[in-house]
Amino acid sequence: MNAHSLFLTALRPFEAARRLAVADGERLHGHGFEARIFAAAASCPGDFPGDETRALGAILDEAVAPLDYALVNELIGAPDDARIAEWLLERAASAQPHAIVLRSAPDRGAVVEPGKHPLAWRRFRFESAHRLPSVPRGHKCGRMHGHGFEAVIHARVDAGQDAWRTQDRIAEAWQPVHEQIHFACLNDLPGLDNPTSEVLARWLWQNLTDVLPGLTGISVLETASAGCHYDGRTWRIWKAMSFDSAVRLARAPQGDPRRLLHGHTFTTRLHLAGGLDEVMGWVHDYGDVKQRFDPLFRELDHQPLHQKAGLEDNDPAAIARHIEARMAAELPGLSRIDVLEKPGHGALLLRGGSTRGLLVP
Ligand SMILES: Nc1nc2c(c(=O)[nH]1)N=C([C@H](O)[C@H](O)COP(=O)(O)OP(=O)(O)OP(=O)(O)O)CN2
């Protein structure tokens, strides 16, 4: 376990107005923003073991509070997404954040990490058919089918530039690609005869890298629960599964409601990193990840976790460790286990300690 690192994440929505000097003038407008923080578990001690995610959420809440129902320009100059995220990074300094991810609208936002260039991101949807020709006979993905795919594209914000300009550059670069893949059968496109998420992510990279300087990563979300991230060199795939469980935090002090029996709809995302199997065109079949997780899923779903041997602590970090111990041998390439107890709040256990790709999508 020594080489592993444990991160926590918390999320806080806020409503705010801002004026931005965008291409067509400086207009007052409003957003339903969402700020997400990532920090090493060691830097956000809680009041008791298992309280760390709440403690991180409290730091983020305090950081965000002045922006909620406010005019952002009164606090931050030229408040594009990256500058707001940088401001929050400073205000949440007590958690020594690894990063802040800001979403100003469902399809755009920025990522800031201390000492690094901010990134801007855009999210796009395309409606496409495909079939995977190499899967074994009877595999459902061998049939012609389709998805409402999504892609999330990250690119570096140039020094001194506004993040919205990078977001616009991403959209401009995306448009010609979108015209090829939206309302199309992916298998018909040159280079996409085996259009897995991984092959599609690489194909998008090849099509975007020359026209989008500063491109850092492409995520392809094939379904709501499965997707992959490609950074031009390596892939990371994930499969998400939800389980509904009864829990109690036995180490919470008397009077804390979390000491009482309660419950959560947990989401776990199992990530696998590696190269492509050149025949299958994938790192590992999403369906197989789900299948291998199934025995453990049955032990967690609709179960009282506080009574489960080896799972005396029921907080997301403890559950992530439990999943890691059970799944590491089952899934070679398992690189990360996320356990969220509600959307945006939970633990991320990185196997091997590398934080590459921690923040996306
Ligand atoms: N590593 C990959 N595995 C799979 C890919 C892929 O592109 N890369 N593609 C498929 C299929 O196209 C399939 O439609 C999506 O997979 P899956 O997550 O298994 O499908 P569901 O969302 O329908 O799964 P649930 O059972 O509903 O969770 C297969 N594998």
From TrEMBL:
Cofactor(s) listed in the protein's UniProt record: Zn(2+)
Pathway note: Purine metabolism; 7-cyano-7-deazaguanine biosynthesis
Catalytic activity entry: 7,8-dihydroneopterin 3'-triphosphate + H2O = 6-carboxy-5,6,7,8-tetrahydropterin + triphosphate + acetaldehyde + 2 H(+)
GO function term, MF aspect, one: metal ion binding
EC number: 4.1.2.50
Protein keywords: Lyase, Metal-binding, Zinc
Enzyme superclass (EC): lyase
Family: Belongs to the PTPS family. QueD subfamily.
Protein name (database record): 6-carboxy-5,6,7,8-tetrahydropterin synthase
